[in-house]
Amino acid sequence: MPEDTDWEAYKVPPTRTPVSERVTSVPNPVTLLQTVFNYVVDAPVTFVREWIERQQSKNKFYYYHQKFRRVPDLSECLEGDYLCFFEAEAQWRRDRMVDQEIVEIVRERLGACKQREGPNQFQNCAKEVELLAQVTKAYQDRYGDLGVHGNARTCLMKQKHRMMEERKAKENASQ
C-alpha cells in the first residue's frame, strides 16, 4: 500500500452530530444526581452485599450433597402415626427415583459400550448386559406392576405376597 495518501481524493465524511463543549457555571444536574445516587443508595447496598458474600464464603453449603436421614420403613410405623406414614412414603418415592436413575445409568453404559464396540458388542459388553439384567430384575421385583399410582403400602404388600409365595414354593420343594 502506498505511503503517500492523497487526502483530497479520499475525503473523510463530516460527522453528523456536532460535539458541543458547553462550559457553564451551573453543574450538570444529571451528574449531580448520579453522584448522589452512588453515595446514598449504591455504596451502602454494595457494601452490605459484599459483606453477605464474605460471610457465605466462610460457610459454604453444598445443596447437591444433601443427605437425607433414613426414616423408618412403613412396616415400622405405629398404627395411626400419620406423620410416620408420610415420611415413609416420601422415603419410598426417593428410593424409587434413585432406583430408576440407577437403571437408566446402567442402560446408558450398555448403549455406550455397544456404540463403542460395534460388531464385537456381544462378547465385549457381556458384563454390562449381565449387570443390566440384574438391575432391571431387581427393579421389576420391587416396583413392577405397581403402576403410576403405586405407593409404599402397595409395594410393601407386593413384597409380602412375594415372600409368602417363595416360602410356599420352598415348603413344597422340601416335601
UniProtKB/TrEMBL annotation:
<comment type="similarity">
    <text>Belongs to the complex I NDUFB10 subunit family.</text>
</comment>
<keyword id="KW-0679">Respiratory chain</keyword>
<dbReference type="InterPro" id="IPR039993">
    <property type="entry name" value="NDUFB10"/>
</dbReference>
<dbReference type="GO" id="GO:0045271">
    <property type="term" value="C:respiratory chain complex I"/>
</dbReference>
<dbReference type="InterPro" id="IPR019377">
    <property type="entry name" value="NADH_UbQ_OxRdtase_su10"/>
</dbReference>
<keyword id="KW-0999">Mitochondrion inner membrane</keyword>
<dbReference type="GO" id="GO:0005743">
    <property type="term" value="C:mitochondrial inner membrane"/>
</dbReference>
<comment type="function">
    <text>Accessory subunit that is involved in the functional assembly of the mitochondrial respiratory chain complex I. Complex I has an NADH dehydrogenase activity with ubiquinone as an immediate electron acceptor and mediates the transfer of electrons from NADH to the respiratory chain.</text>
</comment>
<dbReference type="Pfam" id="PF10249">
    <property type="entry name" value="NDUFB10"/>
</dbReference>
<keyword id="KW-0249">Electron transport</keyword>
<keyword id="KW-0496">Mitochondrion</keyword>
<protein>
    <recommendedName>
        <fullName>NADH dehydrogenase [ubiquinone] 1 beta subcomplex subunit 10</fullName>
    </recommendedName>
</protein>
<keyword id="KW-0813">Transport</keyword>
<keyword id="KW-0472">Membrane</keyword>
